[in-house]
Protein backbone atom coordinates (compact mmCIF):
# COMPACT_ATOMS: atom_id res chain seq x y z
CA UNK A 1 0.00 0.00 0.00
CA UNK A 2 1.05 3.56 -0.65
CA UNK A 3 0.84 6.72 1.45
CA UNK A 4 -0.34 10.02 0.00
CA UNK A 5 3.27 11.31 0.05
CA UNK A 6 4.48 8.30 -1.97
CA UNK A 7 1.60 8.76 -4.44
CA UNK A 8 2.40 12.46 -4.74
CA UNK A 9 6.10 11.71 -5.34
CA UNK A 10 5.37 9.18 -8.09
CA UNK A 11 2.48 11.03 -9.80
CA UNK A 12 2.67 14.69 -8.71
CA UNK A 13 0.37 16.12 -11.37
CA UNK A 14 -2.41 13.61 -10.68
CA UNK A 15 -2.01 13.95 -6.90
CA UNK A 16 -1.91 17.76 -6.89
CA UNK A 17 -4.83 18.17 -9.26
CA UNK A 18 -6.75 15.46 -7.40
CA UNK A 19 -6.18 17.16 -4.04
CA UNK A 20 -7.42 20.49 -5.47
CA UNK A 21 -10.63 18.69 -6.49
CA UNK A 22 -11.03 17.05 -3.07
CA UNK A 23 -10.23 20.26 -1.20
CA UNK A 24 -11.88 22.79 -3.52
CA UNK A 25 -13.69 24.51 -0.62
CA UNK A 26 -10.86 24.08 1.91
CA UNK A 27 -12.45 21.28 3.95
CA UNK A 28 -11.39 18.11 2.10
CA UNK A 29 -14.71 16.56 1.07
CA UNK A 30 -15.32 13.32 -0.81
CA UNK A 31 -17.79 10.55 -1.37
CA UNK A 32 -16.63 7.31 0.25
CA UNK A 33 -17.73 3.94 -1.12
CA UNK A 34 -17.40 0.97 1.24
CA UNK A 35 -18.21 -2.72 0.88
CA UNK A 36 -19.25 -5.42 3.29
CA UNK A 37 -19.17 -9.04 2.18
CA UNK A 38 -21.75 -9.73 -0.50
CA UNK A 39 -23.81 -6.63 0.31
CA UNK A 40 -24.11 -3.82 -2.20
CA UNK A 41 -21.53 -1.02 -1.88
CA UNK A 42 -22.54 1.97 0.25
CA UNK A 43 -21.81 5.64 -0.52
CA UNK A 44 -21.13 8.17 2.26
CA UNK A 45 -19.99 11.82 2.31
CA UNK A 46 -16.87 12.36 4.43
CA UNK A 47 -14.24 14.96 5.31
CA UNK A 48 -10.58 14.09 4.85
CA UNK A 49 -7.14 15.65 5.09
CA UNK A 50 -3.53 14.99 4.25
CA UNK A 51 -1.41 15.24 7.40
CA UNK A 52 2.32 14.49 7.40
CA UNK A 53 2.01 12.90 3.97
CA UNK A 54 -0.82 10.53 4.92
CA UNK A 55 -4.51 10.62 3.97
CA UNK A 56 -6.88 10.50 6.96
CA UNK A 57 -10.57 10.74 7.86
CA UNK A 58 -12.37 10.79 11.20
CA UNK A 59 -15.46 8.60 11.05
CA UNK A 60 -18.35 8.31 13.49
CA UNK A 61 -19.87 5.01 14.60
CA UNK A 62 -21.81 3.98 11.50
CA UNK A 63 -22.12 1.35 8.79
CA UNK A 64 -19.31 2.99 6.85
CA UNK A 65 -17.06 2.68 9.89
CA UNK A 66 -18.09 -0.96 10.40
CA UNK A 67 -17.40 -1.66 6.73
CA UNK A 68 -13.92 -0.14 6.97
CA UNK A 69 -13.11 -1.97 10.21
CA UNK A 70 -14.28 -5.30 8.79
CA UNK A 71 -13.05 -5.12 5.20
CA UNK A 72 -11.01 -1.95 4.61
CA UNK A 73 -11.57 -1.69 0.87
CA UNK A 74 -12.71 1.73 -0.26
CA UNK A 75 -13.16 4.08 -3.18
CA UNK A 76 -13.12 7.86 -2.76
CA UNK A 77 -14.54 10.24 -5.33
CA UNK A 78 -14.28 14.02 -5.33
CA UNK A 79 -17.54 15.96 -5.49
CA UNK A 80 -18.11 17.40 -8.95
CA UNK A 81 -18.47 21.07 -9.72
CA UNK A 82 -20.83 21.56 -12.71
CA UNK A 83 -18.82 24.60 -13.81
CA UNK A 84 -15.53 22.59 -13.86
CA UNK A 85 -16.59 18.95 -13.92
CA UNK A 86 -13.23 17.20 -13.64
CA UNK A 87 -13.33 13.98 -11.63
CA UNK A 88 -10.93 12.25 -9.26
CA UNK A 89 -11.11 8.71 -7.88
CA UNK A 90 -8.90 6.88 -5.38
CA UNK A 91 -9.06 3.22 -4.37
CA UNK A 92 -7.24 1.25 -1.73
CA UNK A 93 -7.56 0.04 1.85
CA UNK A 94 -8.35 1.94 5.03
CA UNK A 95 -6.97 1.02 8.40
CA UNK A 96 -7.99 2.12 11.88
CA UNK A 97 -5.27 4.23 13.52
CA UNK A 98 -4.68 2.80 16.98
CA UNK A 99 -1.79 5.11 17.92
CA UNK A 100 -3.22 7.75 20.28
CA UNK A 101 -0.39 10.22 19.64
CA UNK A 102 -1.02 10.10 15.87
CA UNK A 103 -4.77 10.47 16.45
CA UNK A 104 -4.24 13.49 18.72
CA UNK A 105 -1.81 15.09 16.27
CA UNK A 106 -4.22 14.74 13.35
CA UNK A 107 -7.19 15.92 15.47
CA UNK A 108 -5.32 19.07 16.51
CA UNK A 109 -5.49 20.49 12.99
CA UNK A 110 -8.81 18.96 11.91
CA UNK A 111 -11.51 21.12 10.31
CA UNK A 112 -14.06 20.28 13.05
CA UNK A 113 -14.02 19.15 16.68
CA UNK A 114 -13.64 15.42 17.22
CA UNK A 115 -14.32 13.42 20.37
CA UNK A 116 -14.14 9.76 21.41
CA UNK A 117 -17.09 8.88 19.17
CA UNK A 118 -14.86 9.46 16.11
CA UNK A 119 -12.27 6.91 14.99
CA UNK A 120 -9.34 7.92 12.80
CA UNK A 121 -8.67 5.94 9.61
CA UNK A 122 -5.67 6.14 7.33
CA UNK A 123 -6.30 5.52 3.64
CA UNK A 124 -3.54 3.62 1.83
CA UNK A 125 -3.71 3.96 -1.92
CA UNK A 126 -3.69 1.35 -4.68
CA UNK A 127 -4.75 3.41 -7.70
CA UNK A 128 -6.01 6.79 -8.81
CA UNK A 129 -7.88 8.09 -11.83
CA UNK A 130 -8.12 11.72 -12.89
CA UNK A 131 -10.55 12.80 -15.61
CA UNK A 132 -9.99 16.41 -16.69
CA UNK A 133 -12.78 18.49 -18.19
CA UNK A 134 -12.60 22.27 -18.42
CA UNK A 135 -16.36 22.65 -18.86
CA UNK A 136 -19.54 20.60 -19.05
CA UNK A 137 -19.43 20.52 -22.86
CA UNK A 138 -16.03 18.84 -23.05
CA UNK A 139 -16.42 15.10 -23.57
CA UNK A 140 -14.82 12.69 -23.10
CA UNK A 141 -12.59 13.64 -20.17
CA UNK A 142 -8.82 13.50 -20.61
CA UNK A 143 -7.88 10.60 -18.34
CA UNK A 144 -4.64 10.03 -16.42
CA UNK A 145 -4.12 7.12 -14.08
CA UNK A 146 -1.68 5.87 -11.47
CA UNK A 147 -1.19 2.47 -9.87
CA UNK A 148 0.81 1.64 -6.76
CA UNK A 149 3.98 -0.39 -6.98
Helicity range: 10-25%
Q: Quick one: CATH class?
A: Mainly Beta
Rg, nearest Å: 15 Å
**Separation of the first and last Cα atoms:** 8 Å
Helical/strand content category: alpha+beta
Mean pLDDT: 94
Largest sheet: 8 strands, antiparallel
CATH superfamily: Electron Transport, Fmn-binding Protein, Chain A
CATH-defined fold name: Pnp Oxidase, Chain A
Number of domains: 1
Tell me the number of helical segments per DSSP (H or I, 4 or more residues long).
4
Shape: globular
Low-confidence stretches: none
Order of helices and strands: HHEEEEHEEHEE
Proportion of strand residues: 35-45%
Could you characterize the architecture of this molecule?
The chain is α+β, with helices and mostly antiparallel strands. The chain has one domain: Pnp Oxidase, Chain A (Roll). The protein is built from 4 helices and 8 strands; from the N terminus they run H-H-E-E-E-E-H-E-E-H-E-E. Strands 1, 2, 3, 4, 5, 6, 7 and 8 form an 8-stranded antiparallel β-sheet that branches. The termini are close together. The mean pLDDT is about 95.
What's the quick description here?
The chain is an alpha+beta fold.
Describe the protein's topology.
Layout: H1 4-10, H2 12-22, E1 29-34, E2 42-47, E3 49-51, E4 54-60, H3 63-70, E5 73-78, E6 87-96, H4 100-108, E7 118-132, E8 142-147
Antiparallel strand pairs: 1-2, 1-5, 3-4, 4-7, 5-6, 6-7, 7-8
Brief descriptors of the model:
single chain, 149 residues, alpha+beta, Pnp Oxidase, Chain A, 8-stranded antiparallel β-sheet, 4 helices, 23% helix, globular
